[in-house]
Amino acid sequence: MFHPNTEQDEIKIGFAFATAAALVVNCPLALGQEWDNDGGGNIFCEPVPAPQSVNIGDGSTVNLSTLNVRGDQMPVADPTPPQAGSLGTFRTDVASATSQSWTMQRDVLEIGKVWNESIQLAFHVQSFEPRDDGQDRYSGLMLHNETRPDWSGMWIMNDGPPTGGRAFPDPLQTLNAVGYAGLGFIPAMRNTGLVDLAGPWSRFHLFHNVSGTRPLFAHRPQMRNGITLTGNSDHAYVGQWFDQGTDGSDPEVDDNSNLVFATSDDELTDGTAHHWDNMSFRFFSDLSGADGPASTPRQVAGLRRSASHLGCPAHALGFFQVRFSNRGSAPPPFQQVPCAPSFNTPPFITPHQNTRNRVYALSRGLSSLALVLTTAAAPLLTTWA
User: Fold this and answer.
1) Residue 270 to residue 275: CA distance in whole angstroms
2) For the whole model, what pTM was predicted?
3) Distance set, CA 237 to CA 32, 59, 283 (Å)
4) N or C, which end of the chain is more exposed by having fewer CB within 10 Å?
5) Using CB atoms within 10 A of its CB, is residue 96 exposed (0-12), middle (13-18) or buried (19+)?
6) In the prediction, which pLDDT does 6 show?
7) For residue 285, is pLDDT > 50?
């Protein structure tokens, strides 16, 4: 047992006993422990080794954590309550122009801090450890709710390429994260097997909770400063597309960028019977039915882009449709285009069999474009998935 040697030691012990009596600050007495002081200002429970917890309160919640504070048993009103009746259970203070932090350490690793700046007014929650490529350990800041295995939230990932040699299936599909964040279903971000990369694929990535087959095929290295969406075995990207050469491996060319709206699928369909994996722009009213097509679950006026090879696997075709649309499940049939060498010629114009107002743009690769315009007096009511 510690014995006081100085007046300062007696003051410290007196304060400790006063605190214990007034606030019921407990060492785990069941283990035969009690407060001690090393003479250097450190007050602790001993004998060691087996201290378990320190409890401020009535001692009814021992061994739930190293430090347990029952704010309701020593109620102090929060001077700036976030909600009426809030208690001020824990607080730290520093003087003006002083930074302070709370640290979480694991062995020699400084995992993270909560801290404030000395001059500015920002509040920081920061992850400090970089990615560990050698042991395939990712890092970053995770904010999430729920519990495993169905937890969801946000992951601000470590910078750099994927860890442990993980990669997309094609070597041209490189990824070098700088300030990337994912939002959504965390198992879709993390549980990726032994070789598949974990984490977001672009500056912001939305992960659906129904992942399906991960659409790794669709990623391109130019998909950086934008939003990636994955789920239901499909992929889309909206964002900037920088000039990085023909295969995306070169440095970015300054002032050369496009705004890209991209949807993806693992294979082109044959013909126009497949009404999904399209890109569409739509307007919605309520579901009362009073506004006609706008009051249906899926429909109204808009633009749709479809992709197909129309029986010619080597010919990738794109169709644009601009029209009013009514509820339904199938678009009108497209004009079938023959599979012939002459299809590699410059843009052509061909009539469409359907006699309603539409504009169709048929584009093939980077060189072929067909614009189809038909006009008639029939009502502007067609079907569209």
Assistant:
1) 12
2) 0.73
3) 63, 55, 21
4) N
5) exposed
6) 56
7) yes
